[in-house]
Specification:
It is a single chain. With 363 residues, the chain is α+β, with helices and mostly antiparallel strands. The chain has three helices and 24 strands. Among the domains are: 95 residues, conserved putative lor/sdh protein from methanococcus maripaludis s2 fold (Beta Barrel); 66 residues, OB fold (Dihydrolipoamide Acetyltransferase, E2P) (Beta Barrel); 74 residues, Helix Hairpins (Orthogonal Bundle). The two termini are 78 Å apart.
Length: 363
Amino acid sequence: MPLTMMKRVVLLGAMALALAACQDEEVAERPDPVVRVATVRLSPLAETRTYTGTIVPRTEVAEAFRVGGKVAERRVDVGDAVKAGEVLARLDPVDLNLQLEQQRAALTAARASLTKAETDLERARKLFKRGHVTQAALDAQALAVDETRSRFEQAERAVALAENQMGYAELTASFDGVVSAVGVEAGQVVSPGQMVVSVARLDEKEVEVSIPESRLADLEGSTAEVSLWAGGGIYAAKVREIAPEANGTSRTYPVRFSVPEADESVRLGMTATVSLTKGDPSPVARIPMTAVLDDGRGPVVFVVDPPSNELKRRPVVVEAYQSRNAIIAEGLEEGEKIVTLGVQKLQEGERVRLAEIQSASAD
């Protein structure tokens, strides 16, 4: 082989070796790819809206006298606990006593009149048999007895009514509860039905809120919970009453939620928040749609293994797709890191470097 040809062969071989060495060096020095990741945050898929209200009793009665008169005594104040039948206030009984004595006197007179009329009727019957009085006179005397008997019965009812009114001079509680308001003081003259003391039951408490007409649909199919601004637990609630007409000023509808498990820490007048949750309460994750890869074998997400930063291919269940996010119902755990960009270029087991940590949540 000529010398020139041998030099060329040697030169080409040296160049090939140098090129191979450079390629090995590049392969050896190739860094792990950089990926953008997000931290998985789970939260309910359901939508929650909150409304502020006040703790109120389900039953509150304005106790009032059934007769008018002058208040002689009021025995309770606001905040006092009362039992059913307990005396709340009393009227001055002087006038009622006089009325009762008057009716009793009228009853005595009616009884005497009835006795006389019955005696006269018996005498008229004897005289009629002897022919000393006419049939018309006998009939008139019988009618007089009937009329007198009616007056006597009326007098009896008047006495019974006066006795009842004497009993009405004492105002008693209709049920166990607490005094929520007072309306009169001792010495004040009241009319029948005028509120003297307001008593609220404590065994059934509710929250009253005002809901705009555009949000009334939130009440259907929603789960309600009540929390107090003063702290404490969370109580299950249920819609009991929706006002048929909106408030004329605020244009909102008063709605009452019963709180059957309310304890003594739930006091009347406290401020409370009613949370209405509508939808599936199961925890889900909202992640960017770019994090989901579907190559025909079902949707998957690449999860970064914390110790080694190796990628794990994780099958997931997609509940729904939104404009920018995918709702993942199953397959991801709270706090896991997932790749959010370039997933189509990655392979399972590949080591990566983290460029940025975002939050993948239901926000």
